[in-house]
Specification:
GO molecular function: S-adenosylmethionine-dependent methyltransferase activity
Shape: globular
Order of helices and strands: HHEEHEEHEHHEE
Distance between the termini: 18 Å
CATH architecture: 3-Layer(aba) Sandwich
Mean pLDDT: 95
InterPro entries: Methyltransf_11 (IPR013216), SAM-dependent_MTases_sf (IPR029063)
CATH class: Alpha Beta
Number of helices: 6
Organism: Halorientalis pallida
Strand content: 15-25%
Domain Methyltransferase type: 93-144
CATH topology: Rossmann fold
Low-confidence stretches: none
Keywords: Methyltransferase, Transferase
Largest sheet: 7 strands, mixed
Structural class: alpha/beta
Radius of gyration: 16 Å
Amino acid sequence: MPSVLSETDRQRLFDGDDERFYEQPRFVQHVDEPFRERLTALYRDRLSPDDDVLDLMSSWVSHLPPDLELGEVVGHGLNEAELDRNDRLDRWFRQNLNDDQTLPLESASVDAVLCAVSVQYLQYPGRVFTEVARVLRPGGVVVVSFSNRMFAQKAIRAWRSRSMDERAALVGTYLDSTDAFDDPTVHDAVEPGRDPFYAVTALKR
């Protein structure tokens, strides 16, 4: 599997137990309302009715369009209480992707993989996105969104040391490393006083 980060790139300010760090549910919004509205609009544009979706590194909300009838929506995360409250998930599983990057889904089983405001915590993103490519059907879409907010103590050094535009390029590098996606597209909207909105999308070849 590809390795796109060095050991230095993967370093975190706090490298303690992830299970303990995320054991308390956080029923809060991690980005502001304009960001969430843009993300929902992007999902509406990129997803189709009856799509099967994997919401990777999810929480108690998925930001999916409320009127979009999807197929099966599978959630992934680290906090059971948050995942259990998310009413858009048909089923979910817990897994620490920094320990185990193999997704427990069949190959070519979903039409879309979403990762909202969490990519900055992946220490082995090349391996994770290789798995994303495996579980996606041909023509399926990946949507990776992020802002400037984060748990700084858990974000990897490669993320903390980059500007927003450089972070978008880094996500593109993650996708390119799999040799499975078309050229990624960057979507951004930056307004004074608002959380900057960035998303990278790509289609599986």
